[in-house]
Amino acid sequence: MNEDYLLKKLPIREHGKNIVKILKYVQGMDRYYFPVMAISLLFKTAVPYMELLLTAYILDGISAHTGIREMFAVITASVLAIMLLQFLSGAIYHRMEVRREQMYHLYECETQTKMLEMDFSRIDSPKIKELKDRIIKDNNWGAGINGVFWSCSGVMEHVFQMIGAVVVGISAAGYLFHAGTVSVWLVMAVLLAVQVVSVCLRMYFGRQRDRWRYHEAYSVEEKEEIFCFAWDFAGQESYNYKNGKDIRIYEGYDLMERWTTEVLRHKGFRKPLLRAAGADAGEAFFGAAAGGAAKGGAYLVVVMLALAGTITVGNVVRFAGAFSQLLEAAAGVVHDIPTLAMAARQQLSTLALIHMENEMYQGKLPVEKRSDGVYRITFRNVSFRYPGTERYALKNFSMELTVGEKLAIVGMNGSGKTTMIKLLCRLYDPQEGEILLNGVDIRKFKQEEYSRLFSVVFQDFTLYPFPLGQNIAVSRTYDGELVRKCLADADFGARLAAMENGLDTYLYKDYDDEGVEISGGEAQKIAIARAVYKEAPFILLDEPTAALDPLAEYEIYSNFDKLAGTKTAVYISHRLSSCRFCEKIAVFHEGELVQLGSHEELVADKNGKYYELWRAQAQYYEAEG
Ligand code: ADP
Q1: Candidates 384, 419, 421: which one to mutate for ligand 1, based on the most atoms within 8 Å of Cβ?
Q2: Phi, psi of 586, rounded to the nearest 5 degrees
């Protein structure tokens, strides 16, 4: 990954494009956010100018002996108007904050939804991994999307402030041209020069800060390979009580400390950040110096004009105020625009993820709904390699799955059994060959309809820390009777009866103190009940029982055979004994289908892979027994 990503110089046009891109996205999320922001800031910036004008009016009124009634009326009206503006700006600001907060979370949800909807085949690809790392880093060294909101608000406020200064102080220009002496122009020139130098110095310190914050800090972290782990793993997973056992038994804190507190104490980690803070202080110093010079200079100019007798006391206050506000606002814009450009740049990675198009071909054909469940799947010369790998996980694989069939797939670990299931469900597309449903390439079907054909219990299935009923239906609403029946069929009936809250019982304790901890075997039963509840014509069991002893696995598999009924079922196991009841057994070896037949047929072939595996496993069980 390129460490200099955020520091590489970009043409101003590119910065402009980035800013427009993120602002358009924000506008798309909430089209009222910027108008509301503008109104709030307009009211906010109007207040100091109204105060300035009022002070000027009072001073001039006193020297011109204006009537007390008139002055009282003007002062009362102005004070009321100022109060109203302050109230409105505050009230609108709080509404704007609600919108900002909502958008902040919405933006987070967009990225999470994207990860959930992304082609499965891309989730663990190196490209997505790199993008995810980038997003974590980009959002860590800034305020995330809030950085865009805040710096945008800063730019808008300072621009309004400049416009206000010009409106309030415009008549000063006339005075200057009429009454400006050489010394006045000289002071003005010095003032301008001071501001230009200060802007240059502030930009220099700003660049230094970014360099230390984004570049040096990054490279230290990458050297240590700690960044993502420290924030992503240690930050999140330390809260997960399920991780606590191993950490205690193996005194894992030493390992964790390496990735957590040690990172923060690491001198190399702190040093660049301290330097960044130093540069920040430099920027602040020259900002304050320029502000002071602006104010002082502005007063000097108007005092010189006043001494020359060309300006009233009220106007002295008005022009000096407007002038110093103008310079202050200009300095603010100089600070805010690069900040906005950086904040926008830091969101490019997130936007790249959000705008990422799925690559898998999306078919449009509906899947024919058949009450007789007659669906036939054909693998025709299918070969497949995982993205970024050279080795074939499945090679020249051909087979047919006919309705109601019970097929077992056996073979050693890594022989391609799970891969075949993933291809069957179209989590990946094969590079060669084709998979057909009733003679039609599965790519041509609407994916969500095609997915409905399959119930799968994966090896690493996931149960959610939600109520049991919702886990079975994978939905917040469900048919309670059917859920109970499926749980009973999966041999979970007695356990369910013992649960006080029945189907509303939470699994695990993440979201409910009364949630239940379940054993590995119970989890498998729940996963099986979930597969049965789906009522799909194909039901696939991919070794979810690997952690069980062979007898328990055999029991689950034969029970599952009854549950599968007339459905087409595929059982995967590396234990041959579990699958011998199947009428058809496919033997996989190194990504290839090497044998196909019934247990009796296969075991009779003394030179076959099946016989070799059978002998090896039988010996093991005999020895154990
Ligand atoms: P089995 O289910 O028979 O144990 P798999 O189908 O899971 O075997 O794996 C077949 C081969 O593909 C193995 O060599 C495995 O390492 C590799 N493999 C599996 N999943 C991935 C993946 N996501 N990325 C890269 N290689 C993988």
Answers
A1: 419
A2: -105, 130
- Amino acid symbol at 396: N
Determine the distance from the C-alpha atom of residue 545 to the mean position of all C-alpha atoms in its chain, rounded to a whole number.
34
Q: Whose CA is nearest to atom 27 of ligand 1?
A: 386
Alpha carbon of 253 to ligand 1 centroid (Å): 32
For the CA of 459, the nearest atom of ligand 1: 2
- Contact yes or no for 311/176 (Cβ under 8 A): no
Cα of 389 to ligand 1 centre, how many Å?
10
Residue 483 has pLDDT above 90, yes or no: yes
Nearest CA to ligand 1 atom 14: 414
Nearest C-alpha to atom 1 of ligand 1 is from which residue? 414
Which of 76-90, 203-217, 253-267, 352-366 has the weakest average pLDDT? 253-267
What is the C-alpha to C-alpha distance for residues 320 and 312, in angstroms, rounded to an integer?
Answer: 12
- The pick from 125, 385, 409, 418 for probing ligand 1's pocket by mutation, whose C-beta has the most ligand atoms within 8 angstroms, reads 418
Tell which residue, 387, 391, 398, 395, has the closest CA to residue 435. Answer: 398
Residues 443/119, Cβ–Cβ less than 8 Å? no
Q: What is the pTM of this model?
A: 0.77
Q: Report the atom number in ligand 1 closest to the C-alpha of 412.
A: 3
Confidence of residue 486 (pLDDT cuts 50, 70, 90): very high
Among protein residues, the one with the nearest Cα to ligand 1's atom 16 is 414
> Cα(366)–Cα(260) distance, rounded to whole angstroms?
51
Higher pLDDT: 310 or 528? It is 528
Collapse the DSSP code of 482 into the 3-class scheme (helix H, G, I; strand E, B; otherwise coil) and give the result: helix
Report the half-sphere exposure of 493 (CA within 13 A, side-chain side): 9
How much is the pLDDT for 441? 96
Q: Please give the DSSP secondary-structure letter assigned to residue 4.
A: G
Identify whether the C-beta of residue 449 lies closer than 8 Å to the C-beta of residue 443: no
Over 60: is that where the pLDDT of 511 sits? yes
Give the span between the Cα atoms of 584 and 118, in whole angstroms.
35
Tell me the angle at which helices 313-346 and 182-210 cross, rounded to the nearest 10 degrees.
20
Within a 10 A sphere around the Cβ of 459, how many other Cβ atoms? 15
Q: Quote the pLDDT of residue 548.
A: 65
Return d(Cα 253, Cα 251) in angstroms, integer.
Answer: 5
Mean pLDDT score across all residues of the chain: 85
Name all contacts of 222-226 with Cβ < 8 Å and 24+ positions apart. Answer: 222/1, 222/3, 223/268, 224/263, 224/266, 224/268, 226/259, 226/263
SS3 label, residue 150: helix
Question: Ligand 1 mean position to 359 CA, how many Å?
Answer: 22
Q: Please say if the pLDDT value at position 388 is more than 90.
A: no
- Phi, psi angle pair for 144, to nearest 5°: 65, -150
Task: Assess contact for 304 and 183: CB atoms under 8 A.
Answer: yes
Minimum CA distance residue for ligand 1 atom 6: 416
In this structure, the residues whose C-beta lies within 6 A of any atom of ligand 1 are 124, 386, 389, 393, 411, 413-419
Q: What is the pLDDT of residue 237?
A: 67
- pLDDT range class, residue 625, cuts 50, 70, 90: very low
